[in-house]
Amino acid sequence: MSTKENLAEAFAGESQANRKYLAFAKKAEADGLPQVAKLFRAAAHAETVHAHAHLRAMGGIRSTVENLKEAVEGEGFEFQKMYPPFLEQARAEGDRAAENSFKFALAVEEVHHGLYQQALSAVEAGADLAERPVYVCEVCGNTVYDAAPDKCEVCLVPKERFTLIG
Amino acid sequence: MSTKENLAEAFAGESQANRKYLAFAKKAEADGLPQVAKLFRAAAHAETVHAHAHLRAMGGIRSTVENLKEAVEGEGFEFQKMYPPFLEQARAEGDRAAENSFKFALAVEEVHHGLYQQALSAVEAGADLAERPVYVCEVCGNTVYDAAPDKCEVCLVPKERFTLIG
Ligand SMILES: [Fe+2]
Ligand SMILES: [Fe+2]
Ligand SMILES: [Fe+2]
Ligand SMILES: [Fe+2]
Ligand SMILES: [Fe+2]
Ligand SMILES: [Fe+2]
C-alpha cells in the first residue's frame, strides 16, 4: 500500500482506539477502578495526538471552506447513502439496539448537513456565522441553536439531557 | 452486510468524523471564525454520542478485564504488525512527515502495550493500579507516570510540552 493509504488506515485505527478507550475509561470508573480509568484517558489523549498528526501528514486539514465542503459531503453520504440500508438491515434482523442507534444518527446527520451548508454559505460570503449558543442531545446527538427544546425532536428526551457546547 | 458489520463500519465513520471535526474546529479558530469552530465542536460532540451508541449496540464495552485484554491486543498489533511496514514504506517514498508520524506512534504504542499489561495484571489480581499522576506528550503521545521527563524520550521535546491527565 502507498503511504497515502497507510496514513488513512492509521488515522482510522487511531480514531477508533481513542473512542474505545474513552468508553473503557467510563466503564472502569463505574467498576471502581479510577486509576485504570485514568490510564485509559491518558492513552486516549495520546491516540488523539497520533490521529491528528497522521491527518496533518496526509494534508487532511485545509482551509475552513474546504473543511466545510468535506463536512457537507460526509454528512450527505451518511444520511443519504450509508445509514438508510443499515437501518433496513437492522429492522430485518430485529436488532432493536442497532435500529435505534442508526435511526438517531441518520436523523442527526441530516441536521448536521443543513448546519454545515449554512456555515459554508457564510464563510464563502466572507463572514463567520452569527454568535449563538449550540446545544447537543446526549442521547441522540441532535444539534440545535439558541436553546435546548423542551423535548428532543429526534429522540424525545427532555431538555435536561442537552449539553451547552463551550 | 450484516448489522454486526454495519455497526463496525458506522463506528469507524463516526470515530473519524469526530477527530476531523475537532481538527477543523482548531483551524476555524485560527482562521478567526469562532462560531464555525463552535459548530464543528458541537457536531464532533454529536459524533461522540453516535460512536458510543454504536459501540454499545455491538457489545463492544465489556468488563474492564476484557477491555484491557482488547487494549493490549490492539496496541500489540499496532507496534508489532501495523506500523513497522508503514514506516518502511514512508522511508522508501521519502515522505518525512509520514515517517515521523509513524515513528512516534510506533514507539508510543509499545509504551501503551506495557502500561495496559501492568493494568491487566493488577485488575486480574483484584485491585486497581496505585494512584499516580499520568502525563502525555502533546507532540508524540508518549505516556508516563509520576512526572514529565526533562526531555521526552520519544520525540525530545522539553517537559513543558507534557499535559497532566485529569
Ligand atoms: Fe496511537
Ligand atoms: Fe454528523
Ligand atoms: Fe435527542
Ligand atoms: Fe454521527
Ligand atoms: Fe496506543
Ligand atoms: Fe514526545
Automatic annotation (TrEMBL), chains A, B:
Gene3D superfamilies associated with the record: 1.20.1260.10, 2.20.28.10
Question: What range(s) does the Ferritin-like diiron domain occupy?
Answer: 1-127
Q: What is this protein called?
A: Rubrerythrin-like protein DVU2318
Transport is among the record's keywords: yes
Keyword Electron transport assigned? yes
State the UniProt keywords alphabetically.
Answer: Electron transport, Transport
What Pfam families does this protein map onto? Rubrerythrin, RUBY_RBDX
MF terms from GO for this chain are:
metal ion binding; oxidoreductase activity
Q: Which InterPro entries match?
A: Ferritin-like, Ferritin-like_diiron, Ferritin-like_SF, Rbr2/Nigerythrin, Rr_diiron-bd_dom, RUBY_RBDX
